Amino acid sequence: MGTTDRVGLKNLITWLSGALCFAVLQWSVPASWAMEAGAHQTPDAEQLYNTYCAQCHEGQVKRAPIREVMSRLPAEMVLHSLSVGKMRMQGWMRTIAERRALSEWITGKKVKDTDETVAGFCADAPGEFSIEDGAPQWNGWGADLTNSRFQSAEQAGIAADQVPNLEVKWVFGLPMDFRVSQPTVVGGRVFIGSLQGRIYSLDAKTGCLYWSVKTDGGVRSTMVVDTLPGTTPPRHVVYVGDAAANMYALDARTGKELWKVDVDDHPLATITGTPKTHGNRLYVSTTALEEIAGSDPTYECCTFRGKIMALNRFNGKLVWRAYMLDPAVPVRKNAIGVQLWGPSGASIWSSPALDPERNRIYVTTGDNYSDPASLTSDAVVALDLRTGDVLWSKQFTPNDAWNAGCELEDDTNCPEARGPDLDFASSPILRILPDGRRIILAGQKSGVMHAIDPDRNGEILWQERVGKGGLVGGIQWGSAADAKQVYVALSDIGLRTVRDSDIGFDTRLDSSVGGGMFALDIETGERKWHVPPPGCGERTNCSPAQSAAVSALPGVVFSGSVDSHLRAYATDSGAVVWEYNADQEYESTNGIKTRGGSFDGPGPTIVDGMVYVHSGYGFSGGIGGNALIAFSVNGE
Q1: Which of 202, 254, 378, 431 has its CA 20 to 30 A from that of 233?
Q2: DSSP of 103-146, one letter per residue?
Q3: Which pLDDT band, with edges at 50, 70 and 90, does 374 fall under?
Q4: What is the pLDDT of residue 613?
């Protein structure tokens, strides 16, 4: 596929980071034929599934959910993925009727044409909205510009000795999904998005709904709320990116769209990292799941290159753009004669850290999707905040070129480097030591926490291994750091393929591996304490892995687990001071069927006497759910 074709394709399809098959299916007819063929026929959904889907979803690809797992999903979620989601390239090759038939056959449910989650409105909706100076908030992914994921006692509104008394105050029912964005709480409201392409604004104390709007693609990126400089009266804006690589500015009170900009012309581009605001600028990074498309031997893998850009906050216009790689060039042809390109990848999955005092911005990067491997993949990269010029880059896993073809029997497009896929999925954390020295902490899927000196071109200060690491192992979504320690949760989730007499092959969780909580000294890397996972007991298809991002307040750090437990640890000893099992049904403020499940991806949001967290993550064998749970002391 040439560059012009790839750009043109962006006008036909959008990209949602959903959670279906990690392989790209094969097609026997051109897209234009498929869109027209059989338009007046009743599709045979079972035959379609066996022809185009079974090769991935019957256990051949470990990270692809099997049909039995997908059957628990709403039909609308599968249809959304086939239409504008992660499987939209496959869905684009099928008629609208075929996509709908597949969705209903896989799930055993009819597609609903209305969104029942948009209910439970506040009496005064859309209400009033203001941001008072110094008022409690958790704004964006890391709570601050440095991604500390640490909330001060004043902002938290919860003392360490009150944490054992946390109880559920309210629950809002989100779309049943594998991933949602992390809750942002500003101005007394909760802002959260879903991969089915819907954003919600809720009352932080009661959970009633102020407004909800649709986006072109799913929303995995956490929202940032800020006031436009110099506006009178103050214009409060919600900034959020979607899986179609659109960046939105929405009115915080009403949800009205102020502007929308497509920030990346690559057809598979998406936004997963949370943007940052500073002054008049908005800093946005993009990634792409082209490493999935690259598994198709007929796909010209790969051309996407990770990038970060600065936009004008008032209108979304580009100020500067910085790439992590040089443009891809023809490299070689694969075994069936398809042209391969490179370098590619080095995506930025996470939120950057900003240091306005030093005029710098720091990002972490992912692996390469194709040969040749670059020096800026699996790295921490420093850039000039004003210009985007790259100042230095520090790589931690060389020769890491990988795509999903490396997992399949037909590995034609697997790079010759055949890397271990040890991305940085979590954001860099910037901290200042007591003597004024700066330090960057970066947790990697390798299972290693790295500490580097940003003022000495990324010189390594210390490294501490906490786990084995791997494709979905190591340090996944994010750590938290106070002034003295960094708190690290370990994934190392175990997956095993078994034969089931009813459903064929099944990917199940291994309860014997994964999990654990660590506290490391920021200055030296010394391990202060380690708490092994409690284990799953008699539960089947369970994992103790702690993949979700962690969050802290003075004296306590929270970590969620794939086993559906949210735990609070004392920061001085690691003792578990509170534990909650979310695997249950709830009465929701919007009146829909709601239940909790695994904790994965985003971590808890702590602000103004409350803890907010999403529960339910059915990917990789976890327990699905759709609950946004709000805790308070004694449920008051």
Answers
A1: 202
A2: HHHHHTSPPPSS-TTS--B-TTTT------TT---B-SSSSSTT
A3: very high
A4: 98
pLDDT above 70 as % of the chain: 86
- How many angstroms separate the CA atoms of 268 and 87, rounded? 11
Q: Are 394 and 380 within 8 A, CB to CB?
A: yes
Q: E strands within 180-317?
A: 184-186, 189-194, 198-203, 209-214, 224-227, 236-241, 246-251, 257-262, 269-270, 276-278, 281-288, 307-312
Which residue has tokens 């271990």? 420
Helix (H, G, I), strand (E, B) or coil at 213: strand
Please tell me the pTM assigned to this model.
0.88
Per-residue pLDDT band for 337 (boundaries 50, 70, 90) equals very high
Q: From 118, 112, 128, 105, select the one nearest 50 (Cα to Cα).
A: 105
Instruction: Report the alpha-carbon distance of residue 101 to residue 537 in Å, rounded.
Output: 40
Query: Which amino acid does the sequence have at 282?
Result: L
For residue 23, pLDDT over 70 is answered with no
Token pair 């720091």: residue: 362
236-241 and 246-251 beta bridge pairing: antiparallel
pLDDT tens-digit series, residues 377-405: 999 999 999 999 999 999 999 999 999 99
Identify the sign of the CA torsion 98, 104, 107, 113. positive
Does residue 433 contact residue 439 with C-beta atoms inside 8 Å? yes
Separation of alpha carbons 629 and 611, rounded Å: 8
Domain ranges of the chain: 3-107, 274-425
pLDDT tens-digit map of 584-605: 999 999 999 999 999 999 999 9
Q: Provide the pLDDT for residue 501.
A: 53
CB 543 within 8 A of CB 599: no
Tell me which residue of 631, 477, 629 sits closest to 561, measured CA to CA.
477
Single-letter residue type at 478: G
**Closest to 83 in 3D by CA, of 74, 93, 73:** 93
- How far apart, in whole angstroms, are the C-alpha atoms of residue 631 and residue 607? 11
